[in-house]
Amino acid sequence: MRAPWWFVVPAAAMYLFVVVVPSLRGAVYSFTDWNGMSAEWDFVGIANFVEVVTDRRALAALRNTVVLAAVVTIVQNVIGLLLALALNSVFRSRFVLRVVFFAPVVLTPLVSGYIWSYLLAPRGAVNQALISLGLEGWTRDWLGDPATALYAICLSIIWQFSGYSMVIFLAGLQAIPEDVLEAATIDGAGAWRRFWNVVLPLLNGAVVINLMLSLIGGLKQFDQVMAMTGGGPGIATETISTTIYKNAFSSGEYPVSIALAVVMTMVIAILATIQYRLTLRKAD
Question: Which pTM does this prediction carry?
Fold first, then answer.
């Protein structure tokens, strides 16, 4: 009988050559002046990283990415938790509603972005609904206004992935022993105290997972931004991912793009490590 680790060799080899090797080569190129085509390049030290932290567009993209990730993380998890609490109750249509709220998750982010681009267009469904309610003064070009474009993208992301957070919270809620809740009720705890002092602490693992997944997803957001605004108007909705793409394939600034990608990868790796540590602590 062969050793069990032989079964992971094909997948490990694929991961090594498709992910690890290109990532390491990219990290090396971030310290060079490679133009993306030539086989010759020179080391330039940290010059590319200096350009990243001094470039106005990159800094604007960083700010937008932080705002987007923060808004999406907070709102998506609040909505997901509220949906999970509501649909954890026993009523006839709860299974149908779970499917309905989870359904947007199966769409690709690109499709979700196109749907919301149509809804938020100047003559789209949102503005038409406002007009029909007599709120013409509230209508606007939601994706063409720098003040609202980024939050419109946040709305699209939250709509698509709140159901994903709901499922994780729902799994956590259903793992809570019923006798624990009954004991809290017998002790005189009301609905709010049961939630705050019993349910929420027992949901700690689900909370950590949801927060980290939504935060990391927000930090690397690309598809919906490109589908809805392309980073515009101006640079109002540029994110780190769209800046990497445009620097590499529009401006030909490959080393700067790679340096920015390395920075983003390190940030996400740190967050993933934090999530892993917190999850282990919860398991212990």
Answer: 0.87
